[in-house]
Specification:
The longest helix has 29 residues, at 2-30. Helix content is 28%, strand content 34%. The chain starts with a helix and ends with a strand. A four-stranded antiparallel β-sheet has the order 13-21-20-14. Strands 2-1-6 form a three-stranded mixed β-sheet. It is α+β, with helices and mostly antiparallel strands. The chain has four domains: 17-68 and 87-129, no CATH class; 133-211, no CATH class; 216-366, no CATH class; 368-450, Resuscitation-promoting factor rpfb fold. Helix 1 (2-30) packs across helix 4.
């Protein structure tokens, strides 16, 4: 009897459910089907929505997530990455189709059970999201430079015959692999909120620490020229040039440019008016004498055997060095440059005293002590000046006035060679430069006043 009663009860509810479902079906036949209440796809409540409305709601949800961002932080620097940069999206699914058919498809018992399940709690269809890990890695590896703190090399100067050092500064860089793994862990368990990942940073020591610079230093090259007969202003220009270059420090591979240290040739930069070459004539100009500064440095560079990048001869011969040993400077046309081709920083010490200018190049001596060098020049051709004088007429002087303002100068073609010896025997001879010096006739001023 009890069994029969339970059977009747079950049939009753099944018939009732069928009637309800049949009534619902009749309504949906007249209107577009909607999802029943209590249904979610991921965190989106799609209750009462049509297929189109549910799809629009999911697309809006996806776009909101794609517009969200997270930060990678290191100290006061940060990198911001948007989810759309990682192609963030959900995988294809049939959730909307399943949701629209919930309580409307399947046999009578299944439909009844689906509806009863929703009454006791919401129905959630989970979404699976994807993102491009390769893009993530590429972005992090590229943007890691933005939060990198470069290490600073130690440096030193020479003052009063002693070296004075500045300590190096440690830098830091992102350790990308553990940082990327931390980001992936956050993304794989994302709660749809913005988040911050502290970058894994490692200390970076500079190439040249103070301890490394304090190792034994030697004079790699040294040279002195004199200017005993120069005017006071020209002498002041040489002293100023030495002061401007003194304590220039070049790390391996760096190029020294005389322009960077000596220009501009102006009164504000410490220069005076003195004689210099211009179109075959000695003229007064601001900075006259600077060529002797670069020439003296050039010879110190030769003895240090550094790489000469740019060197040009004077237009005419000079008195303070032999042919092919000079290096001219003229703003906009002639510069003297060289590269530190050693494995350690070099320091240029420059000073003037007793009408002499001296350059010393300090660095780490790594050359073979059994190897020595010397430099020799060779005159290839001597060029005689024209016998036709260059005349300047001065109407303020009487016609009997005649004065040689500049003596005739010979021209030359010359070459400079480096001769290499090992244990006193010559083992090589290298061409260093070819130099050409113009011949110039005598310059004469004559009076024209009658």
């Amino acid at each position: 009897m009890k069994k029969f009663s339970k059977y009747i009860t079950s049939v009753f509810f099944m018939v009732l459910a069928l009637m309800i479902l049949s009534g619902s079906k009749a309504v949906y036949a007249e209107e577009e089907e909607v999802i029943c209440n209590g249904v979610f796809i991921d965190t989106v409540d799609v209750s009462g929505m049509t297929v189109k409305e549910a799809q629009e709601a999911l697309d809006e949800h996806k776009n909101e997530l794609r517009n969200m961002s997270f930060a990678i932080v290191a100290g006061d620097k940060s990198i911001i990455i948007k989810m759309e940069d990682l192609d963030y999206a959900y995988e294809p699914h049939n959730h909307i189709k399943s949701a629209i058919g919930l309580g409307k498809t399947g046999n009578l018992i299944k439909r009844y059970k689906d509806l009863k399940d929703i009454e006791h709690g919401k129905k959630v269809y989970p979404l699976t999201y994807t993102y491009n890990k390769t893009k993530l890695r590429n972005i992090i590896e590229k943007e890691a430079l933005a939060i990198e703190v470069p290490a600073i090399n130690a440096s030193y100067i020479r003052k009063n015959g002693k070296f004075h050092y500045t300590d190096h500064v440690l830098g830091s860089r992102m350790d990308t692999e553990p940082t990327i793994l931390s980001i992936i862990d956050k993304l794989d368990n994302w709660d749809y909120m913005g988040f911050v990942v502290n970058a894994d940073m490692v200390e970076v020591e500079p190439e040249f620490t103070r301890a490394k610079l304090e190792t034994k230093k030697s004079i790699l090259g040294e040279y002195t020229t004199q200017y005993k007969s120069s005017s006071q202003d020209r002498a002041a220009n040489l002293a100023n040039g030495a002061k401007l270059i003194n304590n220039a420090l070049l790390y391996p591979g760096e190029v020294f440019s005389s322009y960077d240290y000596l220009l501009p040739f102006s009164v504000d930069n410490g220069y005076y008016v003195a004689g210099s070459y211009n179109a075959g004539r000695v003229e007064q100009s601001i900075g006259g004498g600077a060529c002797q500064v670069t020439t003296t440095l050039y010879n110190a560079v030769l003895w240090a055997e550094l790489d000469v990048v740019e060197r040009l001869a004077h237009s005419m011969t000079v008195s303070y060095v032999d042919l092919a040993f000079d290096a001219a400077i003229a703003e906009g046309s002639k510069n003297f440059r060289f590269r530190n081709n050693t494995d350690m920083p070099i320091l240029i010490e420059a000073f003037s005293k007793d009408r002499e200018i001296t350059f010393r190049i300090w660095g780490h001596e790594s050359r073979d002590p059994d190897r020595t060098i010397k430099y020799v020049n060779k005159v290839v051709r001597e060029i005689s000046p024209s016998s036709t004088e260059k005349i300047t007429r001065d109407s303020s002087k009487p016609s009997s006035y005649r004065k040689v303002t500049q003596s005739a100068k010979k021209g030359y073609e010359a070459e400079l060679y480096k001769v290499i010896y090992v244990n006193g025997e010559e083992v090589g001879r290298e061409l260093v430069n070819k130099s050409y010096y113009h011949a110039e006739p005598a310059h004469v001023t004559v009076g024209t006043k009658k």
